Please model this.
Amino acid sequence: MNFSEHIKSQHLNLKALIYIRQSSPHQVMNNQESRQLQQALKQRALQFGWPSENIEIIETDLGITGTTIQSRKGFQYMLSEIALGTVGIVFSYDVTRLSRNCSDWFPLLDICSYKNTLIGDREGIYDPRTPNGRVILGLKGQFAEMELNTIRARLNEGVLNKASRGELLRQAPTGFAIQNDVFIKDPNLEIQNFINCVFETFLRYRSAAKTLKFFIENDLKIPRYVNKELTWKRPSVAVILYILKNPVYAGAYAYGRTQTFITDFFSKKSQQKKVPMDQWKFLLKDKFPKYITWEVFEDIQSILKDNYAEYDRNQTRGIPRSGKALLHGILYCGECGHKMVVQYKRGTKYLCNSLRQQYGTPVCQHLYADPLDDYLVKNFFQALAPIELNAYEEIIKNQWHQASSVNKLKEQQIERLRYQVKLAERQYNQVDPDNRLVALELERRWESALKDLKEAEIEFNNRATNHRENLFVEIPDDLKKAFCDIGGKLPEIWSDLSHDQKKAFIRCLVEKVVACQKKPHCVEVRIVWQGGATTTNEVMVPVKNFKDLPFANEFVKKVLELANTGKRDNEIAEYLSEMGYYSPLNRKVLPSTVKSIRLKHGCMQKKSQSHPLKVEGSITVPQIAKKLNLPVHWIYDRIHSGKIKVLKDSKGRYLFPDTDETLRNFIELKNQEIEEMT
Model:
């Protein structure tokens, strides 16, 4: 076939674009031959008659995939030039270099057909306007897309096949090295002890943040390999979580821990998300040397999941925090089953607002926290009473173990620094003294290594002395006895514990608590203990209104009986409080509650309270209001505004003449027949 049969003079007067692309940066760096073959297309354009000044080479898409046009600036420029009608032909070493996606390929053919632009490669020149050219180019585009999918599928099958045997190893995590295509423990004992210390500290504190705090307080650095060179850096919570969540430390090989999701179809942007353990593609246990057992690894994952505070969900409890509410994270609503949250504004309360957040419905339950917390603590003490623990010996043992772990790491750090000093010294001694440029640098390194060693030795000696002094502090015998009988003595030291310590104690025995307010004055509470046993009871809670008290009628009768015997309000309140009665929003009877009940039923303690005020020949404001059925505040408002002119007597009272004219003037003022009265 004559390749130039489609080329006409009108094409030669326009530009010839030579599009060059390589799929990956690796090809750009290492496959220069492919780039040279594509650049040779310029000679092909010259042979077909295009002048050199009309030939333009596009190389801006090197190292970019052809599956999309979003990031390909060269391809976008080529489309814009074709749409402007300035391009006569587009050259590519293979038309598949232009696009690997039919959704981008066929629009290119449409634009070229509309603008009478040819497409050429090393095999021929095609006219998209002709049926034959359209068919050939369309098939080439479909084959290119299918070929890409076939290559990707073949590569993925190879990856999965290798991963199924546990041999797909990438970078070795900290604490491991690759030898003969398998992971082995790092031969550096200091790194091994550091990894062991991470797991031991986490199992002791049960929190990644507290583990990080422990390493920072003890000035422990974390080992990291940067370009195959060992460095010691300041620890971070991300690195600690990486160690705690990586199954390789339990000797297991895992593949498929994350899944890639396309977030933007057009730009092909993706995001990796972690998947649950039961959805991992391959999990091979006992594949590598282990730092912890698989059972311990599963316990760590459960602790981390439980520490994650999903306040809007019901799966986790969250780490114990410093707030006053003891049931935070373990209290559930007995009406809808959702987890209840805490509100500290105007008193500690538990709220169930999950349905309100989702559907805008009213708050499901609104419970006062103190009665529920007291009830749980009481049952917790009863469950803990028969337990006998030698807590003092356990604390001393844990302190010794913790101190020995840190001391071991510090000793290995000093040993490493001593080796670095000796190495720097040997390097300095081996250099030619006349080569001052090198000798000065090696001398500086030697001095820096000596300085680091001296600081580490001073810090180690000071720490050992302080720890020895703190460890052997004598404690009183009664406190030591309380440690040895923690089950019976815990109520005595309960008030001295912090809120997060109290919550940690409670969660050792309590799985969750379910509360349901059956009546305004009582809440049904079900405690679910670790292991599945339950304890259910009703807890009396404060009420807002007096009528919601379960003993309201009986309470009124007793107040009136005691008041008629001549007892004062505070005496009645103390007596009723001892009998178990209480006022709304309080745990005891208030004198103000007794007084309001007594006055409401007309029971007066003073003789002057038994009859209204009477002044011969005068009438008071309350008496006028009662006779004329007027609001008292209406009369006082007119007095203060000056519409009613009256003076106070010697005792500060407003008195009016007790006549019919006074009442008639008030009626006229009310009906607005007069503007003021005197």
